[in-house]
Amino acid sequence: MGRRAFRVTRLLCGLACAWLAAAAALPEAHGIETTVGGVRIGIGGYLEGLGVVPVDPDTRRQRPELTLRLTSAAEPVRNLRLVLSVTGLAGGTPVDARPGVFDLERAIQNRSPSLEVEELYADWHASAFDVRAGKQKFAWGKLDVIQPNDWLNPEKYYDPLLTGEDERKIGVPAIAVSWSPSLAPRVDDFRVTAVWVPIHVPFRFPQKRERWFPPLAIPPRTFRDEGRIPLGLAVENRNEGPRGLDDGNVALRVSGLLADVDWALYYFDGFDPLPLFNVHAREAGPELEVVETPAFRRFRAGGADLAWAVAGLSLRAEVSYQERRPFSRNIKRDLSGHGNVPDDVF
To answer: Across the chain, how many H-helices and E-strands are there?
Structure first.
């Protein structure tokens, strides 16, 4: 990072942290609302700390973490709402990190202290139509932990167990158009939503030395092929991700309420938001080095979900069909001493 870029980053981080700190003293549930020049503005935020105490000496280090978040909304004109959400983070799982701003191009980014614009969009709504444009997050599906039809937002995998679903998601630049015609008395709350994400945004993955780097992605120490060959590991960014406007994602959701059953149908065509890696080997002195680089593959999916309250119980179900989607492989099993080092996706 050049000096000028570093100064700009430091200034942005300082301004964001000051703004967040000013809002952090306010209760998140209320925040403040005011009117400036006839424009209604609401600001809220919170300050959160996290400390992890290891009980196993072999556990990888996770430094204390401090998170500052600001959310702000304004209504400059009737039926138009502007939303901003900014997060500043210091400490946590990154190892040998540098201060900076997260971008939308690389899967492996080692930033701390960091600044990120989580969401920044304009939302225009009328009686039957709603148009939202900008960087945004989507929450599709009805299950609590795993939503097999929620494909629009990639996630961060720095601390997957202690981070909430909304905090794990990465906002994507998108245009979402919703249409809500009146179909009563047959169907209530009928809504059709179409989403276009013009550019591909990759997932974010930890470094190999960080606490939450998956053990299944670590090769064995040796590879047996007419003898034992030492193995190393390198996890690298190859900025080969698709960036054209024809490489975006499209999704469709149709939902409604029919006879007390809350239902929805889904379609998705785009890049897999879950972590994928290409694996190949190269010579590195007396050993072989297993090189893992982020991979980006398209697939299609269709699905449905429903929620039904009956006899005081709530029934929720979700199903998804996926076409041409890669599945996980165990790199340790592939390198256990049979065959060649794989050149594939896991």
So the answer is: 3, 18
CA 82 to chain centre: 22
The one-letter code for the residue type at 155 is E
| Close Cβ partners of 16 (under 8 Å, ≥ 6 residues apart) | 68, 70, 86, 88, 115
Tell me the pTM: 0.82
Closest CA to 48 of 153, 162, 148: 162
Nearest-angstrom CA–CA distance, 203 and 171: 11
Q: Which residues pair with 252 in a beta bridge?
A: 194, 267
For residue 220, what are the contacts with CB-CB under 8 A and spacing of at least 6? 231, 332, 335, 336
| Exposure class string for 268-277: b at 16+ Cβ within 10 A, else e | bbbbbbebbb
What are the tens digits of pLDDT across the range 11-45? 445 544 444 444 444 444 446 877 777 778 888 99
User: Over the stretch 237-285, which tens digit does the pLDDT of each residue have?
Assistant: 876 667 777 788 999 999 999 888 999 999 999 999 988 888 888 888 7
Other C-beta atoms closer than 10 Å to the C-beta of 157 total 20
8 A C-beta contact, residue 279 and residue 264: no
Which residues fall within 8 angstroms of residue 186, CB to CB, at 6 or more apart?
Answer: 258
